[in-house]
Design brief:
single chain; mainly alpha; 10 helices; globular
Length: 249
């Protein structure tokens, strides 16, 4: 298993294997997204309290899920690169940052749009909202620190340490609605136990699950495509990269 991981972690092998994986992510992503959006926006019934406005949930909730998931991948990849000096791990961390920041920004914007008719304001300094905003700042700080050094190894080391320290924010985001009396509603699916007894009707839950899968597939696609570009940039003086350029050019 470890030998397979080491082989895949080779920039050359990763570039070749990832090209074969991308189509297997792309087509399911398109199908699941179309089904999930149509089901959530058209078929799912209106909420008895929020009416039609709750439908923004099908973008907001998956974006919020992914904002935390991507940060976890970023921090773990940074730790792997820091400890075992695996180049591809640092690449995964680096290219995940703007993707995660985009998911976080989308979660904040859609949350503001959803919250306006419910709370009467675009923003409140609620524990959940504030900790999510801090997550966006962590992504931006990671990217800034990663670009602040000319030496790639120093940049990867410094930004990875920041990312690892920032992990403390994830449980704060997740449990904020439990630890504090917040305006933000509780999670629809917060644990294994609640899957059998979710907080919302199954007609609303199933398209939400589909959109959650869709966003994960989207992350996988963006991650592989951005990582391939980053690998080519970092390995531009390698013989295999020059060969690819000659074949394409």
């Amino acid at each position: 298993m470890w030998k397979w991981i080491q082989a895949f972690a080779s920039p050359k092998n990763f570039y070749s294997i990832s090209a074969k994986i991308i189509p297997w992510l792309l087509y399911p992503f398109i199908i699941i997204t179309l089904v999930g959006l149509y089901w959530g926006l058209v078929i799912a019934p209106a909420d008895y309290q929020q009416g039609e406005s709750y439908r923004i949930m099908y973008v907001h909730v998956p974006a919020a899920w992914m904002s935390m998931f991507v940060y976890m991948v970023l921090a773990l990849s940074g730790a792997i690169g820091l400890i075992w000096q695996i180049k591809l791990a640092n690449v995964v961390a680096k290219v995940s940052a703007p993707i995660g920041a985009s998911f976080t920004f989308l979660a904040l914007v859609t949350g503001a749009v959803w919250g306006k008719p419910m709370w009467g304001t675009w923003w409140v300094w609620d524990a959940r909202l504030t900790s999510e905003l801090i997550l966006l700042f962590l992504y931006l700080a990671y990217m800034s620190l990663n670009n602040a050094f000319d030496n790639p190894k120093t940049a990867a080391k410094a930004s990875s340490i920041l990312a690892i320290v920032g992990l403390i924010n994830l449980p704060i985001i997740h449990y904020s609605v439990t630890w504090w009396n917040t305006l933000h509603q509780g999670a629809s699916i917060s644990s294994i136990e609640k899957i059998s007894q979710p907080a919302i009707h199954s007609d609303m839950l199933l398209p939400l699950v589909l959109m959650g899968i869709s966003f994960k597939l989207l992350y996988g696609l963006l991650l592989l495509m951005r990582a391939r570009d980053e690998v080519l940039t970092q390995e531009q003086n390698s013989g295999w990269v020059k060969k690819i350029i000659m074949e394409k050019g």
